[in-house]
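Human: I would love a firmer grasp of how sequence relates to backbone shape in proteins. Take your time, and here it is.
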Amino acid sequence: MKNVILTGFAGTGKSVVGQAVATLLGWTFIDTDDVLERLAGKSVEAVFAEDGEGAFRALESKALVEVCNGDDQVISTGGGMVIDPANQSLMRESGFVVCLEASPETIIQRLFSEASGSETVRPLLQGDNPLGRAMELKAERAAAYAQAHWTVHTDNLGVQDIAREVVRAARMLDGRVDATQDSHGADLAATIRSATGPCPVYAGTGLIEDIGAMCRSAGLTSTAYVISDSNVFYTHGRKVQMSLEAADIPVHTFVVPAGETSKSVETLEACYQWLAERRAERGHFIVAVGGGVIGDLAGFTAATFNRGLPVVQVPTSLAAMVDASIGGKTAINLSAGKNLVGAFHQPRMVLADVESLASLPERERASGWSEAVKHGLILDADLFQTFEEHSEAIMNLEQPLTSEVVRRSMAVKADVVTRDERETLGLRILLNYGHTIGHGLETATEYGTLLHGEAVAIGMTAAVRISRGMGLVGVDVVARQDKVLKQYGLPTRMPGADRDAIRRAMSVDKKTTAGNIRWVLLEGIGKAVTRNDVPEDLVQAAIADVT
C-alpha cells in the first residue's frame, strides 16, 4: 500500500488527523488544498469566488493526480473530491482510503469555532442555514463516502484516538503499511524516518519484559551489549538481560557509576575497551538502559565503535523517555563544557516502559514532567490541556492515561526530529523552549542545585514573560503555564541566583549567532516561534522575575 488517504466532509478533522497519522507512521503529510492553491496561485476561496466551482473541481482532480504519484504519504483530500468517480478510483488504487465521519451538528460547531476575524467557513456552507446545507451535502455525498475502505466516526474522539484507529485499520487490512507492525502496535507513539531507516518509538507498561522478542522482530538477533548504571541495572537492566536471553540473544553487561561524571572520556574509553575485549562486531548491537546520561554515553559509544553499531534506547527516567532518548543526539562532556563531543546516531528502536517511573524519586519524576509539559506548550495545545485537567491522575501514574500522555509527548518530539533530524531547518530549535535561561541557571549554579527539568521550568517561566512583553501572548497564557508547572511540583523561581552569572552563561549558548540569541517564545498555547529581536531590558526583567 502506497499511501493513506483521508476523505470526508469538511470539519471531520482530515488535516489535523492526517498530520497525527503521518507522525505515527513516519510518513509525509500532504493536504490537497495546499497543492491546489499552489497550482492556482490563489486561495481556495478565491478560486471559488473568481472561477466557480467547476474550475475548482478540475484543479482538485489535477492536485490529486500529482500527489498520488508519491509513496509513504498521508493525504488529506477536499470534502467534495470523492464525488468524481475518476477521483474515487484513483484514491482506491493509490492507497488505503479512510472516511472521517461526524454529525452535521458537530461539523458546524467545529467549522464555526475555527472561523474568526476575516476567516470564513467553507464556501459551500455560507448562507443563512449552514446546518441545513451541511445535511443536504452530506446526503448527496453519502454514496461516494461509502466507497472508502474504512470509516471512523470522530464526534467523540480526540485527534490522537482517531489517528490510532486509522493506523490500526490500515495495519489490519494491509500489513505493508508499516514494517514495525508487531504485538505492541498499540504502544507505538511514532516512527521516526531518517536516512538510516525507521526508528519506532514505544511507550507502555511491561515492555521491558518483551524487549527480547521486540528486538528479534526488528531484526536484531545477534549479540547484545547492555550498558547501564549502578542505580538502574539491578532494577531494570537485569530484566532487559533476562528478556534478551529468553529470546536466544547472547548478552554481555557493563555497569558504570551513576551520575553525570560517567559522561566522560575515561568512561567512554572503558566502554570501548570492554567491547573490544568481547570482540564486538558491526552486526552486534548495544542496548542503553537508564536515564539521559546512559542514553548519551551508550549512544555515542554505539555511534563510534567499529564506525557504528545499532543501538536500542531503553529510557528509565521520564525526561529520557519524552526527550533525551528520541532524536539520535549522543554526547560526552569535556572539562571545557557539556556535550562538546557527540554525534547524531538514530536508534533502531526506543522502548519506554512506563512502569519504571514508579521507582523514580518524586523530585526526579517531577523534573521529567517539565519536558513533557513543554511539548504541549510549544506544539500540542490538546496535550497541554490534558496536563491541565488530569494533573492528579498523571502525577499518580494512573493507567492508561499516563502511558497515553507519555506517548503523545514522545510523538511531538519524534515529529520534529523526522522533519529536522540534524537541526538544519530551524524546526528542532523549538524544542529548546525554556532552555536558554534554564541552561544559564544550570551553569550559574554549577549543575549542583537544580535538576535539568527544574531549570527548564524556571526558564519557561521567564520565556513566557518575555513572550508577553513582546506582545505575543496575554496574561491568561502566563497564568495557565505557571499553574500547570506548580501542579506538577516544578519551581518557577530561584531566589538569590546570580543574575550576572546567568547572563554570562547565556552569551555562549549554542543558540547564539553573531551575538544574538535565538529565543524560543510562545504565540499561544501549542504555538512556539523563534525571535532574535528581544530587547535586553526585557531579558533582564524576565531574569529578575525568576531570581
Summary: The first helix runs from residue 14 to 25. The radius of gyration is 25 Å. Residues 95 and 415 are 22 Å apart (CA to CA).
